[in-house]
Amino acid sequence: MGSAENILVIKHGALGDVVLAQGPFQAIRAHHPNAHITLLTTKLFKPFLEKSGLFNDIWVDERAKIWNILKIAALRKRLREGDFDRVYDLQTSSRSSSYLKLFAATNLPEWSGTAPGCSHPHMNKNRGALHTIERQAEQLRQAGIESIPDVDFSWAAGDLAKFVGLSQFAVLVPGGSAHRPEKRWPAARYAELAVRLQITGVSPVLIGGAAEAEAIEIILKACPKAIDLSGKTSLEDLVTLGMAAQFAIGNDTGPLHLVAAVGCPVTVLFSKASDPARARPRGRDVTVLRSEILAELSLDAVIETLKMPSEC
User: What global pTM score does this model have?
Assistant: First the structure.
């Protein structure tokens, strides 16, 4: 591949989706070592992914509504001026697929994805049933990238010392989509778990944002010695905590994907609302517990999966 090669990678999505794309990001860079690679993503992930060293440039996609002619025209202009030789659409949504139409018909780039008429289509009628990791690996193989390396987030790791007093601890992620309460194990169960961990000498560290405020309040009321880091952690902090934690427990949500990806032993809880076969976190040590109704999942069932101090 020549040094003049221009590559565009498209990846929006939530945090979990971006975490699962890290391996493909690395594979694309390895396959195009001398290329100028641009990532088109959402604003949230730009400062984080800039530190990876995998991209020469990162563009923010505002994902403008189709009726916003001025913004669509600006994106079209930018894409055309990018003079891309190849596009890897790892989002493969109807939106990202539609971007192929924004290029001049006389100067279409090679395109890996699902856009109608693209040069390197992902040909698998059952692609929607595959886990994201396998789906993207197959898509890249069909575009000539044969293997996906082990995920490396070492570039994001910081100094654990900033979290004063942390030594033997477990990360609890009691949140999830605010509009999907059925994907959450009850806060009262997390509270019971926090108390049990504290008794065994493992400090519970609570991760979340504004949407988890009520759940975290319930946990802290039952276990005042739990360490509340809700609203205080960057993505880099999640990497740092994940690398040092004894283990982590949480619902099917983005932060747990990142903690799992850096090698932390993780227990992830699924209800019937989502399918772990397609969307579970991946890492060196991931245990999936699934109950159709998470409120029916017992505390003991969760504790049985954990590597308590005597076992670590």
Answer: 0.93
